[in-house]
Amino acid sequence: MQTAKYLTELKKRGKESKVYKKYQLVGLSIAEILNDDKHKSLYIKLAKNGDTEKLLRLAKEVAEKKNVKNKGAYFMSIYKK
Hints:
This protein is an all-alpha fold and 81 residues long. The chain has one domain. The protein has five helices and no strands. Helix 2 packs across helix 3 and helix 2 runs parallel beside helix 4. The chain starts with a helix and ends with a helix.
């Protein structure tokens, strides 16, 4: 019985976010702003290699636009320019 309880506790802890660096927090924030959890690692990588303030500002601008269906794709298209 305790084994099942322990396994559920491990699964619960595995789903929690473990942030150790500032760029990880920025990347996760961008994913949350854009509602794009599938591409968290991409945003973390962008934050690690780029200007974090610029990325956050751009993500917030994209999130404010109401007529954009895929905010993550729109963000990347603007970022590449």
